Amino acid sequence: MAKESILVAGIGVLLFTALMAMYRVIAGPTLADRIVGLNTVTTKVVGIIAILAVLWREWYLIDAAIVLLMVNSVSGLILAKYMERRGRNA
C-alpha cells in the first residue's frame, strides 16, 4: 500500500511540473523555448504513463510510452532542423 501511494505522489509531482512547463510552451518568447517546453511535457507524460502501467499492471502501456518517446525525439530533431534552416534564410 505504501509503494502505491509513493507512485501516486510521483504522478502528482510529474503533473505539477508538466503544468509548469506548459507555461513555457504557451508563453515562451521564442520558438526554441516552446520546443524545449513541449519536449519536457512529453517526457513527463511518458513518465506518468510508465507509472500508471506499473500501478494498473497493464504492460502494453510501456510500449505506448516508448513509441511516444521515439516520436518526441524525431519531432525535436525535425523542429531543430527547421529552425536551423529558418535562421540561415532570415
From TrEMBL:
Its main location: membrane. It is found in: Cell membrane. One of its GO terms (cellular component) is plasma membrane. It is a multi-pass membrane protein. InterPro entries: MrpF/PhaF-like. The chain crosses the membrane at residues 6-23, 35-54, 60-80. It comes from the Archaea. Keywords: Cell membrane, Membrane, Transmembrane, Transmembrane helix, Transport. One of its GO terms (molecular function) is sodium:proton antiporter activity. The keyword Cell membrane applies. This is Monovalent cation/H+ antiporter complex subunit F. It comes from Pyrococcus kukulkanii. The lineage of its organism: Archaea, Methanobacteriati, Methanobacteriota, Thermococci, Thermococcales.
